[in-house]
């Protein structure tokens, strides 16, 4: 899906960040001056208009910053970078009598580095502007009047008014009005959503028609939108293993290169060849080959409603061969409903049973608990407050209500509390929630949940994309689990699991050599999400714990996005390899060959050398637009 970049932002007046004028900082102008000065003096010397000493001076001016950054990198990171390389190449040329060649070479390299640096910054800026921005002012309604307020001065709870054509400045919920909102900047979904009272809205999304009164819940850096931007910005710091590999290669390559150069010099005694060779042996693009790809891929995913927290996870996602799913809230729609109540004790009517169960479940965040409470409210039962309440992971709740001890949960909960189950309440695809009062089993509430729309197709496309194994892990009972898995065509199912059993199951799969992705909603699977090679959380209905524990978040809860994310990840991985092998490897091998054969000199080499830089850059940024099947 190709998403339109958000339309012009009327309420912010800052210029687009990608414009050249913003990138040309004072330091950059200074750099331009230095390059021009060195180039000019080299030209004058060549025309025999200035003495050699002046050229020496120019070379020193040109090399100064290179030496500075090069030596700093050497001392602090123990890394021989391009800077040291260029310095040595230039010095070798100048000391070897090839003074003009040396100076020109240095100038060309300085220009190349300058352009590469500028372009990388520009790519970053344009990636950010693709995602969009948040308005800088909000129209706040207070005491019957409205006034424009800088976004930094909006408070949580403030009522913000947003009209057609404007962007929403805060995260909040609708208190009045109707509107059709384009949420593409957050979810990647370009079909506008209708919003009315009670609905959640996000900063950065656009009101296409209508108007909304929004009560502010989150502002500034706390908004979902800001978190997305921060992720894209920080993506570089979460280095992918392939990037560390590139760094490692660069560090052992350099001594090898020096030995090789010395050997060549001893054989040919030709300074020009050495200088030419040095240009093609610089490890510069090795450093460029991955980070730009990672930023581009993460930005591409973000535009499709997939949050990826770093390049690291892109690489692991590309390698995944096993996907593990949680059932409740992930494969099911997370809209559980009570379908039947069965009393097994004549002293309790169905309404009484529901009343006690709802009271016990009142404080629980579990989807089943919410279904019980919602059903009680719908049947207009007044639900009392529990005097005591405890949620037992993977079991249910124990509560004290009107001096009675009430258990609500699965059969294990009752068994472990010493309650005898008079019947085995198994019922196809429905989850039985058992209720016991003061040690007596009193009845069962059956809860049904529908499958998440598109779940079947999403699993099929994952299999098609090369996933070998799909597993379902659930805390629910085996019968319900089987009903769901049969419908979805999953054959590896494990039911009645405690949260820690899910972690063990994943560890086992990993021990068998699988790369495991875990998809969950986080009610009971945050530890499993953290344990898997890649944790993927459902963002829409997902809990905070899952969002924190997960490496990838699906903003729309759309399972088909998993295959989409994987397609982006694999494409990015391939792009990195192309960059390394074609952009860096092939071009350099050809260049080295040409230099050894004496076909090219240092200046041609410096010009040709711009090729891989450009190639790597274009190839990486392409990831933002190229068609990726399934995305
Ligand atoms: N608050 C609750 N109210 C009623 N029953 C509960 C509650 N919490 C847990 N249970 C029972 O314990 C079982 C296991 O719960 P758990 O949260 O581990 O898994 P789940 O939500 O059923 O499934 P999944 O692991 O697929 O998310 C549930 O199926 C339910 O029967
Ligand atoms: Zn779940």
In words, what does this structure look like?
This protein has 631 residues and is α+β, with helices and mostly antiparallel strands. Among the domains are: 86 residues, Distorted Sandwich (Calcium-transporting ATPase, cytoplasmic transduction domain A); 134 residues, Rossmann fold; 112 residues, Calcium-transporting ATPase, cytoplasmic domain N, CATH 3.40.1110. The protein is built from 24 helices and 20 strands. β14 and β15 form a beta hairpin. The radius of gyration is 32 Å and the shape is elongated. The N terminus is likely disordered. Bound molecules: adenosine-5'-triphosphate (ATP) and zinc ion. The site of zinc ion has 9 residues, from α13.
Task: Fill in the keyword field for this structure.
631 residues; alpha+beta; Calcium-transporting ATPase, cytoplasmic transduction domain A; Rossmann fold; Calcium-transporting ATPase, cytoplasmic domain N; seven-stranded antiparallel β-sheet; elongated; disordered N terminus; binds adenosine-5'-triphosphate; binds zinc ion
């Amino acid at each position: 899906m190709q998403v339109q970049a958000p339309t012009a932002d009327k309420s912010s007046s800052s210029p687009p960040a990608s414009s050249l004028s913003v990138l040309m900082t004072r330091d950059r102008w200074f750099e331009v001056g230095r390059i021009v000065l060195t180039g000019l003096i080299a030209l004058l010397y060549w025309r025999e208009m200035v003495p050699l000493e002046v050229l020496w001076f120019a070379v020193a001016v040109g090399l100064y910053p290179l030496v500075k950054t090069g030596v700093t990198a050497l001392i602090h990171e123990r890394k021989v970078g391009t800077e040291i390389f260029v310095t040595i190449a230039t010095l070798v040329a100048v000391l070897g009598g090839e003074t003009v060649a040396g100076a020109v070479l240095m100038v060309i390299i300085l220009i190349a580095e300058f352009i590469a640096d500028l372009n990388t910054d520009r790519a970053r800026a344009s990636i950010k502007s693709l995602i969009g921005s948040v308005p800088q002012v909000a129209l706040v309604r207070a005491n019957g009047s409205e006034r424009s307020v800088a976004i930094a001065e909006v408070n949580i709870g403030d009522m913000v008014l947003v009209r057609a054509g404007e962007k929403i400045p805060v995260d909040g919920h609708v208190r009045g009005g109707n509107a059709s909102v384009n949420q593409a900047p957050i979810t990647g979904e370009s079909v506008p959503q209708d919003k009315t009272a009670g609905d959640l809205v996000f900063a950065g999304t656009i009101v296409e028609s209508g108007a909304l009164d929004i009560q502010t819940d989150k502002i500034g850096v706390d908004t979902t939108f800001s978190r997305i931007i921060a992720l894209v910005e920080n993506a570089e710091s979460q280095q992918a293993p392939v990037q560390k590999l590139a760094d490692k290669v660069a560090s052992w390559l350099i001594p090898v290169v020096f030995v090789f150069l010395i050997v060549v010099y001893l054989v040919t005694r030709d300074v020009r060849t050495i200088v030419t060779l040095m240009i093609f042996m610089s490890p510069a693009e090795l450093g460029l080959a991955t980070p730009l790809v990672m930023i581009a891929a993460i930005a591409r995913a973000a535009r499709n409603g997939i949050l990826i927290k770093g390049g690291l996870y892109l690489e692991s996602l590309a390698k995944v061969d096993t996907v593990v799913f949680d059932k409740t809230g992930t494969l099911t729609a997370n809209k559980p409903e009570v379908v039947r109540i069965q009393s097994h004790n004549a002293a309790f009517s169905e309404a009484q049973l529901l009343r006690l169960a709802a009271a016990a479940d009142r404080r629980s965040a579990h989807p089943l608990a919410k279904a019980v409470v919602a059903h009680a409210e719908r049947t207009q039962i007044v639900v009392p407050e529990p005097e005591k309440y405890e949620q037992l992971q993977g079991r249910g709740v124990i509560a004290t209500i009107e001096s009675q001890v009430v258990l609500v949960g699965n059969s294990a909960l009752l068994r472990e509390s010493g309650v005898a189950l008079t019947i085995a309440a198994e019922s196809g695809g429905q989850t039985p929630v058992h209720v016991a009062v003061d040690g007596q089993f009193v009845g069962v509430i059956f809860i049904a949940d529908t499958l998440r729309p598109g779940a079947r197709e999403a699993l099929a496309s994952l299999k098609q994309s090369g996933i070998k194994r799909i597993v379902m892990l659930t805390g629910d009972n085996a019968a319900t689990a089987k009903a769901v898995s049969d419908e979805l065509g999953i054959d590896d199912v494990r039911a009645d699991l405690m949260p820690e059993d899910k972690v063990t199951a994943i560890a086992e799969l990993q021990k068998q050599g699988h790369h495991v992705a875990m998809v969950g909603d986080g009610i009971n699977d945050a530890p499993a999400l953290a344990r898997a090679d890649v944790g993927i959380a459902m963002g829409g209905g997902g809990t905070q714990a899952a969002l924190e524990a997960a490496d990838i978040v699906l903003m729309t809860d759309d399972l088909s996005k998993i295959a989409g994310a994987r397609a982006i990840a694999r494409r990015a991985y391939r792009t990195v390899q192309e960059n390394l092998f074609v952009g860096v490897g092939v071009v350099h091998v050809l260049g080295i060959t040409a230099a050894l054969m004496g076909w090219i000199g240092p200046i041609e080499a410096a010009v040709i050398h711009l090729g891989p830089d450009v190639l790597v850059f274009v190839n990486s940024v392409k990831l933002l637009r190229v068609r990726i099947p399934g995305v």
